[in-house]
Amino acid sequence: MLDSIATVSLSGTLREKLEAIADAGFTAAEIFENDFVASDLSAVDLRLLMMDLGLRNVVYQPFRDFEGLSGDARIRAFDRAERKFDLMQAMGTDLLLVCSSTLEVASGDHARIVADFRELGERAATRGLCIAYEALAWGRYVNDHRVVARIVQQVGLPSVGMVLDSFHSLSRKIPVSSLENIDPQSIFLVQMADAPIMDMDLLQWSRHFRCMPLQGGLPVTEWVAALMQIGYQGPLSLEIFNDRFRAGLSKTIAVDGRRSLIALRDDASRLLGEDGMLPPRPPVELTFVEFSAAQDAEGVVEGMLQAIGLRKVGRHRHRAVDLWQGSENTHVVVNRESHSLAGSFGLMHGQGICAIGVRVPNRADAAQRAKALGMSILEDPADNLSRRAIPAVRTVGGSLVYFLDDDALDGLWQREFEIEMTHFSPVAGGSLFFDHLATIVRYDEFLSWLLFWTSLFDLRACQEVDLIDPGGVVQSQALENNDGSLRLTLNGALGTRTLASRFERHFLGSGYQHLALRTDDIFACAIRMKRAGLPILVIARNYYDDLQARFGLDDAFVARLAAHNILYDRDAGGGEFFQVFSRAIDRIFFFEIVQRENSYNGYGAANTQVRLTAQRRAGYASNTDWFPI
Ligand code: MG
Ligand code: MG
């Protein structure tokens, strides 16, 4: 299958789009009519440019409202088509996409539609051109690929075939099994788009929310597997209308497009029980986070770690790097080396998390998968903690993810660090474990982050939720592995006055905004933090009155929550969640301590407006009273 993408999927001018498409490794593209009409490239210029870029022009599209007309309107439709044939011959494509009519005046009579396509197909064939008919989900009479398949069969010309568009079919819940009965020779083009599951007008859903495979919730993998099974071998072409993509960088979106198609084909072949084309998505768990602290002369990061209840357990044998632990398997690295990746990261972004380490079954396989997905791999970053080669991949925001397997982890900490404790024992108040990492992502990079994680690792994307910040709405989506040992949240705001957008400005891009650590005893932890003098985010009293009313909690319990500024949530299954927040370092980074009881699986979304408002009140813009160290 040829990898293709429609120019409408990207931002930029037609030339910029095509260059980005070629750079990302596509070998084909669809020319969207509006992109061509607005371009200063002539049809011949376009042909030469695409030849230079090594791109095949798979289709010119769309040709609208053609079939079922009569009288003058029918004559004009054919004249219009002839003009497009001229253009197609000059630009070097042999396929015209005709989408089903939305016109009220058109007829839905199949015999007439068949006659129209027979005549169009005959005219096209005299020029060596072909016609591909597509059922728009909102077509007036034809809105189902099964109907198009019947029409194409009745036309019975080799120059007339069909377009399958995953969005048009799957948005209407047409069963994937319907592909089994289609002759693959009659499929001239397959267009791929995913979409988040939404209950909305089909046209609006399609125009604004289409996304790439693995970024949405439609059964696109099953769809491609069914196409593979019937032996379809033509182009697989992304056709995506998405507001974020229109605002994004064409190069990034094109790279994402290739990534999604590579992962999609691999997933589909596995679904068919075949070997995949790349190493499988590894199961993954978080083993360490690394703070960049080269500019942290006052030791704010370490001061906070200590106050929260992590324990400094060792110092790197050769570098200015300290090792902290919250539990036996919860490692936090504080890197104060200026001449290092962490140091450069800190200069650019400030103090915060510059890398994480994840445990995978095989680090070389994980790196190979990342590479095959077009990710930027550092085979052995010069300042990695270990003397063993530990590959790392660069995230969308530039931080690193190290791949560690049991071989790399075996004795890693003891070998590299002077460890003062032989057996880790937690401080009073108990151990701390990784719970989740919250990422602030740029609005137009939201789906890039989502694709990065879901194409690389075995993670589940949870339902997206809207969070209310006093400065605007923030879209938030969680990604989790099976047992909850890796949880990430992506948060992106469209406006510029939210906490998330202020993070972006101060941090200069996307990155981790807070680390949530889990305790088994939030009250003990809160007492410990208070004693250590850690500034805690102060929660409004009104919140606790409401909490009591909502959940019928007893007075003493609510008073304890309020005394420690602990937020509380309860789910339908009786799961309970507790959260307390530190104030922020440098207006950027803060910690959250959580406790989960009875399998509570969320992130306290119900409390987020209260928390964000408290952070705004705390004077997020002022840097003077953050941390008194
Ligand atoms: Mg389409
Ligand atoms: Mg959180």
Automatic annotation (TrEMBL):
Name the source's superkingdom.
Bacteria
This protein's pathway reads: Aromatic compound metabolism; 3,4-dihydroxybenzoate biosynthesis
Residues the entry annotates as binding a divalent metal cation: E134, D165, Q191, E239
Q: Where does Mg(2+) bind?
A: H436, H514, E592
Q: Which Gene3D superfamilies match?
A: 2,3-Dihydroxybiphenyl 1,2-Dioxygenase, domain 1 (3.10.180.10), Divalent-metal-dependent TIM barrel enzymes (3.20.20.150)
What this protein catalyses is: 3-dehydroshikimate = 3,4-dihydroxybenzoate + H2O
Return the EC number.
4.2.1.118
Cofactor(s) required, per the database record? a divalent metal cation
* GO terms for MF: 3-dehydroshikimate dehydratase activity; isomerase activity; metal ion binding
Q: Name one GO biological process term.
A: 3,4-dihydroxybenzoate biosynthetic process
InterPro entries in the record, alphabetically? Answer: DSD, Glyas_Bleomycin-R_OHBP_Dase, Glyas_Fos-R_dOase_dom, IolE/XylAMocC-like, VOC_core, Xyl_isomerase-like_sf, Xyl_isomerase-like_TIM-brl
Pfam families according to UniProt: AP_endonuc_2 (PF01261), Glyoxalase (PF00903), Glyoxalase_5 (PF14696)
What SUPFAM superfamilies does the database record attribute to this sequence?
A: Glyoxalase/Bleomycin resistance protein/Dihydroxybiphenyl dioxygenase, Xylose isomerase-like
Instruction: List keywords of the entry alphabetically.
Output: Isomerase, Lyase, Metal-binding, Pyruvate
| HAMAP family for this protein | DSD
Q: Give the family from UniProt.
A: Belongs to the bacterial two-domain DSD family.
Q: What functional role does this protein have?
A: Catalyzes the conversion of 3-dehydroshikimate to protocatechuate (3,4-dihydroxybenzoate), a common intermediate of quinate and shikimate degradation pathways.
Its protein name is 3-dehydroshikimate dehydratase
Q: What is the organism field in this record?
A: Gluconacetobacter dulcium
| Highest classification ranks of the organism | Bacteria, Pseudomonadati, Pseudomonadota, Alphaproteobacteria, Acetobacterales
